[in-house]
Amino acid sequence: MNPDVVVIGAGVVGACCARACVEAGLTVVVVDRGAVAGGTTGGGEGNILVSDKEPGPELDLALLSRELWAQMAGSLGDSFELDPKGGLVVATHQHTLDYLLRFADEQRACGVIAEPVAATDLPDHEPRISRDLAGGVLYPQDMQVQPMLAAAHIIEAACATGRTTLMTDCAVTGIDVDASGAVSGVRTAQGVISTRHVINAAGTWGGEIAALAGVELPILPRRGFILVTEPLPPLVRHKVYAADYVANVASDNAGLETSAVIEGTHSGTILIGASRERVGFDKTLDWHVLGRLAKQAIEIFPLLAEVQLLRTYGGFRPYCPDHLPVIGPDPRVPGLLHACGHEGAGVGLGAATGHVIAQWITGASTSIDLAPFSPARFGASHVA
Amino acid sequence: MPSDIVIVGGGVAGIAAAVVAARSGCSVTLLDSGSAVGGQYYRGAKSPESGSGLSYEALRRAFDELVVARGIDRRLDTYVYSLARRDSGFVVRTRGDDRHRGDVDVLESRAVVIATGAFDKQLPFPGWTLPGVMSGGGAQALVKGSDVLPGQRIVVAGTGPFLLAVTYALISAGGNVIAVVEANDPVGLARHAWSVLPAAGKSADLAKFVTALAKKRVPYLRRHRVRRASGTGHLESVTISRVDGDWRGIAGSERIWECDALAIGYGFTAQTDLAGQVGARMRIGSDGGLAVEVDERQRTSVPALMAAGETTGIGGVDLARMEGLIAGVAAVEQCGRQAALSDAAIARGMRDVLKLRRFADALHFAFPVRDGWRDDVDDQTLVCRCEEVSASKVRGAVSDLGARDARSVKLLTRAGMGWCQGRICAPAVDALCRFDSAASLIGGSYRPVAVPVPLGAIAAES
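^ inputs. structure came back:
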């Protein structure tokens, strides 16, 4: 086996990388130590958001990504429930609303569609919403996909071209380099794969993959829980969340942060996030966290108090100290590229990530400047 | 105030544990989701026959007395949605039934006994979701609990001696059972089981069932299986055929019987949710199903957590009672007290558990579930009823989308995401996908919310 590219990780980012590389004419092997979408992709909500991005490189990436997601949904026959439902960000107090409106002004200057909604008009957009809110902003560009289906169908389509091979239950045990220090192959539980390019799309475990190539990547887990309700007739139309969510995403607080993020799904269940904690890879359920999420969600949709919690799931967002993903070539190991560390935005940013990675490998100029995402920003430390 | 011991489940195992624990001076809270104790087996038992020693009747009388005398905190219509460890003990979160929506409580205890029993194992086949088709346990509960017959012409099918118990309950209530369809060949296979029958004291029950069947001239077909249920809006007929040793249909032997009720039983699935929440080690029982692993004192791999009854592996009511006693002793000792049961009685109980467990294993060996049922599951057959996921979708997740275990099938198809949280369909999904069952079953059995609970109720805990 001698593909142009080996993608490590069969989550949504790895899937998008594989697809973009295949479309650029490359041959690809996707390896994953488990199943498709078995990591953070399978623990998320499938957000494709521009609303929570402050002006800067991540917002540029998000705007490109949502265009690419729409194109992918078109060509893959909507096999993954892409829903351009739009986002509605609401503020519970006037001072939060003031902040939210200023934030929206800045976003608008960068091409985001953000429409202020007065408190009295909120029920026009969300009939069941609390009447005690200060106001909000509507973001029609926000979308949602079913992330597991997205990863699986994107990989399946890549495999159907005959230029991609998927190897699940196939842990990577080493990354080989030649005499010049450049990537020459990937060692796996199922044998060695010779290649000149490795894409590290291992998400929260991206640091471990980097270490196999002898380099350090500061990616750490940030735990989140999601509550899933009983299936209901459609009650929540948009992705609705509290304005303090944006502050929490960008926060450096290691302790618990929660802000309600509420949305319906195609199956009728309502998903309620989002909590953020830095507790390592501890999956222990914390009812205090779940209770806070429930309470905050009820503040926005009071009728949720009577709705049954059916299950809950959790995952680990891969975060970097500066909250930006790591996308692009690693100057320390020629042939090694990173596409990980997207924190909670791997689905939303995945399509653009794959796009620019494939552009870089094929020598094309990238649609987005990769410098802010470069692994070089962490310094050039090699693992001893 | 924290209890010494919380017992989850008021079936025979839970009651036995409660009696031992309360007599030994421990404070006991017993939780049960039903409106009376007794569990599945003694559901609605009206007139307790006279019982002595360790019979259920004697235990039940003792339990009722101890509720008054020793203040056993008996909470009925109470569901446990979460079990968690805290320091050296446990936190048990409960909710009331639908009449008490939002009635949530958080209990603490030094030790916990899980005696949550089991539920019917169901396997999909064409037509299995038609009204009129029900589990063996469902049919039995209907008759024993509500005195209602499931239909005018009833077929009982599946495998195992439980079919005889179901049939007995139905004909005792005046039901017209037109046949019992047994997929295995107990005469050929079960010599080992018959040989341990007398030792386990089971022959009386069996004789009672067989005599009743003979008296009503109910045909008992061996090596036959229901292949399909048919009808418009309701069950109208079943297709049965002879099957080979692997349960594959023998061509040309199909027959169609008119009937309006089908009670079908393939054994039981242990209710292991709470043990799974605290990470107790599981094992694959001799029936191929998941069970909580316990030592000779019914202690799980989690300190201060005991399990008894069907939760530790399907074995029947007598085994559950003995396991409950031993689990009660272990829980008392965990609380630093002396059990009010002589060493000799404890040793005898542990010997009985071994003997009855051997008997259960022999039965499972004699009445296995063979792979041939999978061949009948056509593309349209629903595997997950809650989310209406068909067999073709489940198989497609494996063949086309890279699913490799129960969890990834669930994420890609929604099989197991609905109301029952995969309790019914998970074993079927594993079997249809030919997953390595131990790892996949255990991986698919983690359910952080054991029963639905209102968001408003959990918000109160924030």
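The mean pLDDT of chain A is 93. The first strand of chain A starts at residue 5 and ends at 8.
thumbs up if we can close this ticket
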